[in-house]
Design brief:
The structure is a homodimer of 347-residue chains. The relative contact order of chain A is 0.15. Chain A is built from 11 helices and 19 strands. Chain A is globular and about 60 Å long. The longest helix of chain A is centred in the middle third of the chain and has 16 residues. The interface between A and B is medium-sized, with 31 and 31 residues.
Chain lengths: 347, 347
């Protein structure tokens, strides 16, 4: 059995953590939760004996930044696949599966911008999944939920088919609040965290069955593309023809041998400033502060700057983020409204 | 009788409106309330037929800025007295009185950083005062109070001695809240706005009587100083010996023939961001916004920037001011705490 090949997806354009995250430097390239960037943390999380060098699939405009960040932690990708445009996760993973070193290599597909605090639990979940993966199953990791989140998809966990491995009863799209609460209460649902483990050939076989045109477009984009060293540049003309679809929609919800490994591993997708505040170390006043910030009589605030100096007094429950020529100010709980601000600024 | 000589005091160092106001460019040099700076508004307020060219007393470090701002509105000071250091208002006014063109010239002493919305009322108050001034009285203008402010001194208004002109019963230092409320309720108190009208010789005579050493030091600072064109540069060594005292303490509270002209003229000393918010035009959501600011679902906020772009959503009753490399954030009603922040930043 070949080593596990980490597949790191760096496709996010990062609007939700504006103004630090920007198209030219999205969330995964930022050191939001540690000294390392989220991309570096992701690569480090799947490095070591049982892992081969990673395949990274990224936006071509970030090539230099990705190579520098990986080099800085001594990670050498076996391939850096540079997407000419974003086509969602299914085509991105197809690119990785087609450049994998062996057809039967297990691919550990990971978004590049998630936090996993308990790496040991993650590794144990991988170990549980591996026998089924070798047997050709498509495995997703189901995050044990601790709140009725409406921003994630859910997975209904079915019967156990091997130790720690369950059939997927069904995938549930981002639910309304009441449904989320019911699923949380049921105890048999998990969040769909977008982390997968399967053999390259098993994924490609499923894609051939359910999305043959996508597979064909991706295959052709590689045939007509260029390769220089580890850099793989698919043809834009061919890749543009791949349908813009998620792996969930294109494959996981349709395929037969789909399993879920439920795991509690301190997972967080850091999908908003509120989410970052929730996982940040706070001082005794409840403030999570980074950069040049003076805060007096201030409680339960997130304040970060890589630009101007922030001076605040008498403030509670506020999110304040300064970066470059911008500063964002909103109350805790409102960080989903960053999108509204960005839309307003376009006008 | 000579024309009235406006004496514009530009001594404030401007910490209360940080970060826009800074030692190198204090409040009076900023366009806070209009297109013109507060210095320009002050000069314009006392220009016209009955006024001579002004005498400006300022910190020497602001020489160029003051000359530029006055030139921009066509105001030509007859003298620009450049203080080598700040010694409070009594020595500053003594400098002006000593460089006045005639001993009996009426001096209209005005801080350079106050707002007066109703200039006609101001002019009428000056007209009321003028006969008594010609007769040698020292006149202060008493601002009709509309709130129990604890940040101003008060004047107890005594008997009327000429139309619109009253004896000063007594001066009251910045009072505690209860005393301020009692004075507001009494109806016979006015705020001490720091605006005066008196003959140069009347003021100098009083100074000779109550603060002879101050007068002597100021006189010597001019004798030992330099004059080039309109620029007057007192000797620092001599001027440093002048006691650091306000005109109220040095003269007004002690002299006999002191009168007050009560006047309601939309006066505001713009002594804090809250004060500025109170006098600023607000949009229908109650927001007073200047500069590049995007505010969604935001009410009753003051937001100003001459630096970074401010994006805010879901915020109420907040003061946000960005200037240079700094941004200030505090709730309305807390703007006196700017001083605390500045102290904290020194550490």
């Amino acid at each position: 059995m070949p080593s596990i090949v980490p597949v790191i997806l760096s496709g996010g354009s990062g609007t939700r953590l504006w103004p630090m995250s920007r198209p030219e430097r999205p969330k995964q390239m930022l050191a939001l939760t540690a000294e390392e960037t989220m991309l570096q943390l992701t690569a480090s999380r799947a490095a070591g004996e049982q892992f081969a060098a990673p395949i990274v699939v990224a936006n071509a405009r970030h090539t230099d930044m990705i190579e520098e960040q990986l080099a800085a932690i001594g990670a050498k990708p076996q391939a850096l696949v540079l997407e000419p445009m974003g086509r969602n996760t299914a085509p991105a993973i197809a690119l990785a599966a087609l450049v994998a070193p062996q057809p039967d290599a297990p691919l550990l597909v990971m978004p590049s911008d998630h936090v996993i605090e308990d790496v040991a639990a993650f590794r144990a979940a991988i170990a549980s999944a591996l026998p089924m993966v070798e047997d050709g199953w498509l495995v997703t990791f189901g995050i044990t939920p601790d709140a009725p989140e409406t921003g994630y998809g859910y997975i209904k966990v079915g019967e156990e088919i091997a130790e720690g491995v369950h059939r997927v009863d069904r995938f549930v799209e981002k639910p309304p609040r009441a449904a989320a609460e019911a699923m949380l209460a049921s105890g048999d649902h998990a969040w769909n965290g977008g982390i997968f483990l399967f053999r390259a050939d098993a994924f490609l076989d499923a894609l051939a069955q359910y999305e043959p045109k996508m597979l064909e477009a991706v295959r052709r984009s590689l045939a007509e593309g260029e390769r220089a060293g580890t850099q793989v540049r698919p043809s834009a003309r061919a890749f543009a023809e791949a349908p813009n679809e998620s792996i969930d929609y294109a494959v996981m919800e349709k395929a037969d041998r789909v399993a879920v490994v439920p795991v509690a591993m301190g997972w967080n997708d850091v999908g908003s400033w509120d989410a970052l505040h929730a996982i940040s170390a706070a001082d005794e006043a409840g403030n999570a502060i980074r950069g040049e910030v003076i805060a007096l009589d201030t409680t339960n605030c997130l304040a970060r700057t890589d630009g101007v100096r922030i001076a605040m007094v008498g403030v509670q429950d506020l999110i304040v983020v300064a970066s470059g020529n911008d500063i964002l100010i909103l109350p805790r709980g409102r960080s989903q409204d960053v999108k509204k601000l960005l839309e307003a600024m376009k006008d």
